């Protein structure tokens, strides 16, 4: 009799549980449909395909419902959208709560360094710049995604993730061919200019009379310098407002370090040919042989204190003093970006496309009443030492990073969230919000074609092969958190005049060599540094490639081209 009652009770519990489960599934599917119809539009997927993709997330998340995951990222528009909108959507669709923290980039680096060097478990996932790829593949503390997706993460890996659709995987792949990070957002530092001023017949005539060539997009630094002088000195004011031919910043802090490491020396031409970062010498001036860094100073075969690097720093200081608004040396990255809104800057050689959204707002003096910008972006001009086949600037690739010190059962739901915010269901809308594209399918969509006139050349740049010449810090840097402070601690000494450009680059090269030597002696990483013995500078400077001997003429004749030709160069 008791057995009969127990059987009935078990049957009742089964049906009640099944009914509850079905009710829960219906709730999640209903919320998924709501988000598709009210937020995740437009998309490169059809509504039916979006439903199918989100249905996969609903099913894959079942074991983790009720879980809370913690992630951290840099504070930019794209990640703010993820934290405020996508985290909420993910919870309503999967039942997994997300605490998505946004903070300064330097803080993200500090926290990921603390977790993987001290073994302290802090976050379940990081959206961490691919600048650390050299650190990640050597440390062996990061979960290799290539392996994870095939093994322990196979059941929680999105069938429609479509890695081939990502434009930045080469930046997050180690020399060993393993994928360590998944791109979440990308933005580049490009040349920015007032297209309306450059098109004025009176200004074009005046420039041609003074310099002997057309006022247009500068191909080399000589032309950039001429244009900077032209607007600052010879034009002076437009519509009663003082104008300047250059904009930059010089406040001592981490963002000044990024200004140089991201990647000023590459634009000057300090490194070697080869994409993404120059072989064997990269844009930091670090030489690598057989995956082992062997030195940053010219004396060890590097280029951090070579003639091209000194030329790069010299021009930076000269332009900041002569052609930028007064007080620019006291501004940081964010402040200098906001200053362009005032409408008195003619051009910037180094402008992050992450500011695109902020500089397309209606009502700004740099935007027409119909919402189209008076400015455009184009590929950056190169310095006198640059040669065809070298990288020409920096591209940020904030990427999902998972550490081995994070418990596997926390990594799995965090991996689901990571895939959700880069999924095709979501990615086009996220691109529209933050203007940091990661997928070819989004870039090639009709939606982006329609938006193109309002984005000042951003779409044209990312659709061209030019995007492959703008790359993040590469694999030559063996410990980014350890070595990157050298830039922002040293460069200000040259800006203030405490050191000459040569002395500052010598100090930086010594700093980088000292850190490489520390890592060599510590011997805890794969492909650890093994420094070359010091030689006379002449031994390296007169060999082929980088480091390069000083040019007799560091200011060749200026050359400019049209926007269409500037993009076409990279086709």
TrEMBL record:
Q: Which GO terms describe its molecular function?
A: transmembrane transporter activity
Entry-linked InterPro entries: ABC_tp_sb (IPR014597), Bact_solute-bd_prot1 (IPR050490), SBP (IPR006059)
Choose one Gene Ontology CC annotation of this protein and give it.
periplasmic space
Query: Gene3D superfamilies per the record?
Result: Periplasmic binding protein-like II
Location comes to:
Periplasm
Main localization of the protein?
Answer: periplasm
Q: Which UniProt keywords apply?
A: Cell membrane, Lipoprotein, Membrane, Palmitate, Signal
Q: What PANTHER family does this protein map onto?
A: ARABINOSE-BINDING PROTEIN-RELATED, POLYGALACTURONAN_RHAMNOGALACTURONAN-BINDING PROTEIN YTCQ
**Family (UniProt):** Belongs to the bacterial solute-binding protein 1 family.
Give the protein's recorded name.
ABC transporter substrate-binding protein
**Organism of provenance:** Halobacteriovorax marinus
Instruction: Cite the source lineage.
Output: Bacteria, Pseudomonadati, Bdellovibrionota, Bacteriovoracia, Bacteriovoracales
